[in-house]
Amino acid sequence: QFDSIAETTSFNEYAAKVGATELPDLLEAAAAFAAFVEGRPHVSRPQLMKWALSAGDGGHSREEGLRAFGTLLRTGRIHKLRRGQFTIAKGSRFRPEGH
Predict the structure, then answer these.
(1) Cα–Cα distance, 14 to 71 (Å, whole number)
(2) pLDDT under 50 in the chain at which residues?
(3) CB proximity list for 71: less than 8 A, separation 6 or greater
(4) 3-state class of 48 per DSSP?
């Protein structure tokens, strides 16, 4: 599933390639996209929310996104670096081999 990540040009394309469809998975995949496709050392919560909500089916509210984001933080799937800066967890299923 990660073979062609380097050629991925959009988050929606990335989410489809990694099979992220539910809101928590979309948020986690957005953090992985920022790290592995865009090469960002960190990403903001608003950016993760923007990508996840744009890639979803449109049936999710901002509040649902915030709840899912909080759950990802509590369960360690996304890590807070500093205020407003987040990154993907080392054990994420969306982390390609070799990263």
Answers:
(1) 22
(2) 1
(3) 24
(4) helix
